[in-house]
UniProtKB/TrEMBL annotation:
<feature type="disulfide bond">
    <location>
        <begin position="354"/>
        <end position="381"/>
    </location>
</feature>
<keyword id="KW-0325">Glycoprotein</keyword>
<dbReference type="Pfam" id="PF00084">
    <property type="entry name" value="Sushi"/>
</dbReference>
<feature type="domain" description="Sushi">
    <location>
        <begin position="324"/>
        <end position="383"/>
    </location>
</feature>
<keyword id="KW-0677">Repeat</keyword>
<dbReference type="InterPro" id="IPR035976">
    <property type="entry name" value="Sushi/SCR/CCP_sf"/>
</dbReference>
<dbReference type="InterPro" id="IPR050350">
    <property type="entry name" value="Compl-Cell_Adhes-Reg"/>
</dbReference>
<feature type="disulfide bond">
    <location>
        <begin position="385"/>
        <end position="428"/>
    </location>
</feature>
<feature type="domain" description="Sushi">
    <location>
        <begin position="384"/>
        <end position="445"/>
    </location>
</feature>
<keyword id="KW-0732">Signal</keyword>
<feature type="domain" description="Sushi">
    <location>
        <begin position="1"/>
        <end position="62"/>
    </location>
</feature>
<feature type="domain" description="Sushi">
    <location>
        <begin position="63"/>
        <end position="133"/>
    </location>
</feature>
<feature type="disulfide bond">
    <location>
        <begin position="164"/>
        <end position="191"/>
    </location>
</feature>
<feature type="domain" description="Sushi">
    <location>
        <begin position="258"/>
        <end position="322"/>
    </location>
</feature>
<feature type="domain" description="Sushi">
    <location>
        <begin position="134"/>
        <end position="193"/>
    </location>
</feature>
<keyword id="KW-1015">Disulfide bond</keyword>
<protein>
    <submittedName>
        <fullName>CR1L protein</fullName>
    </submittedName>
</protein>
């Protein structure tokens, strides 16, 4: 024997037992949004000899809510209803503004619905919104600017977006909305320093291998001096780093030119006086030559030195060595026409002459050659007789001649009608084996 099936309440259900025998119980639950009215549990009992349930089955009643609150300057969509139950919703809206007034903004949730927290009593999902005039001040972010949402004035719901200035980064939300009078949500962000400024420029140096134009804390920048320059002796690089306060650790000094020592050239001099200075640096030029009587070894008459990037002169500072000279030409009875010296530099050109009583045999000018010999071969001075003596009223065959070699003969003759007294001919001869003279006195006419 068993109790009959008790049935299920509307909007509820029966938790079925294993059987409906005497003493068994059944339980009832309601669907979401409904509450149980009556006993949630009944038992199969005997009454008057009949198996029956101890109570009537309960009912499931929709959970009610109080009417939604009214608001100033607005209304909700449920104004024509008296009863509200689980799941019902209403939507609020604001009244239009009077002439000259700013419009109302609905602050809060526009729609609310009837719900429950304890499955017995109904509550509205949110407080009723408010209708009020909402304005927010111009949003200002130090070291930042508006990216969008520019307006002369801001009302409820207006949204703005920000970006930070160069070398600053955003802390917080990049967008905020006007939610209440002077209330921006999320709060306006901060623009916080994120990088050091550009590293300082350094004279005569370059910043090596920069990876971009952002310099966060810890960034190291290396400076390299330009060719021929240095920070200090032997130091051509300098490192600086971006510190926590977004400042550079230091400003490097300028790169100065690599110095060269003043060239010391014994028996040498600067060709241009204006090139002389107390100190020389990379790139300076100095034209040098040797003093008179000295020459540059293996070079021309002068050489231009340049101070190199290694602090050395290029080419190397030369030496002035005594100039190679040709000895005075040894020509017996001969001498130089213009000047006389004990020796002569390479390239010197001399004109030669013989003293009276001698005649030059060979070239009349010679040049000191690179091999320190005279070119062409030296001439010699040959002995001669001078012009033969002249006679009154007569003449000789050597008329016009000034030099007569050994053995030369001249013949005299007289004017017409005169007779020659003495030897008709004289010849150039030597009485002592060295000097030449005419063989005798001249005849007479």
């Amino acid at each position: 024997k068993a109790c009959s099936y008790p049935g299920e309440p509307a909007h509820g259900r029966l938790v079925l037992p294993a059987s409906f025998t005497l003493g068994s119980t059944v339980n009832f639950t309601c669907s979401s949004g409904y509450r149980l009215i009556g006993q949630s549990e009944i038992e199969c009992v005997v009454r008057n000899g009949i198996l029956r349930w101890s109570k009537e089955i309960p009912t499931c009643q929709a959970i009610p809510c109080l009417p939604p609150p009214d608001i100033e300057n607005g209304q909700h969509s449920g104004g024509d209803k008296e009863h509200f139950e689980y799941g019902d919703s209403v939507t609020y809206r604001c009244h239009g503004p009077r002439r000259g007034q700013r419009p109302f903004s609905l602050v809060g949730e526009a729609s609310i619905f009837c719900t429950t927290r304890d499955n017995l009593n109904g509550v509205w999902s949110s407080p009723a919104p408010e209708c009020k005039v909402v304005s927010c001040q111009q949003p200002r972010v130090e070291h930042g600017r508006l990216l969008s949402g520019h307006r002369p004035r801001y009302s409820f719901g207006d949204t703005v977006a920000f970006e930070c200035d160069f070398r600053y980064s955003l802390s917080g939300s990049g967008a905020s909305t006007c939610r209440d009078s002077d209330l921006w949500e999320p709060p306006l962000p901060l623009c916080q320093r994120s990088d050091c400024d550009d590293p300082p420029d350094v004279r005569n140096a370059v910043k090596a291998r920069l990876a971009g134009n952002l310099f966060p804390v810890g960034t190291v920048v290396t400076y390299e001096c330009q060719q021929g320059h240095q920070f200090s002796v032997g130091e051509a690089t300098w490192n600086i780093s971006c510190l926590q306060g977004f400042v550079w650790s230091e400003t490097p000094p300028p790169c100065e030119r690599v110095p060269c020592p003043a060239p010391h050239i014994p028996n040498g001099r600067a060709v241009q006086a204006w090139q002389l200075k107390e100190g020389y640096g990379y790139g300076d030029r100095l034209q040098v030559a040797c003093s008179e009587g000295f020459a540059l070894q293996g070079r021309g008459s002068s050489v231009t030195l340049r101070c190199g990037s290694d602090g050395e002169w290029q080419p190397a500072v030369p030496e002035c060595t005594p100039e190679p000279r040709c000895p005075k030409p040894a020509i017996p009875a001969g001498t130089e026409v213009d000047e006389s010296s004990s020796d002569y530099p390479v390239g010197a050109r001399l004109r030669l002459q013989c003293r009276e009583g001698f005649v030059l045999r060979g070239p009349s000018s010679i040049t000191c050659g690179a091999d320190l010999s005279w070119e062409p071969a030296l001439p010699f001075c040959d002995r001669v007789c001078g012009p033969p003596p002249r006679i009154p009223l007569g003449q000789h065959s050597g008329r016009g001649g000034t030099e007569f070699p050994y053995g030369a003969t001249v013949t005299y003759s007289c004017a017409e009608g005169l007779s020659l007294i003495g030897d008709e001919s004289l010849h150039c001869t030597s009485e002592d084996g060295q000097n030449l003279t005419w063989s005798g006195p001249a005849p007479e006419c």
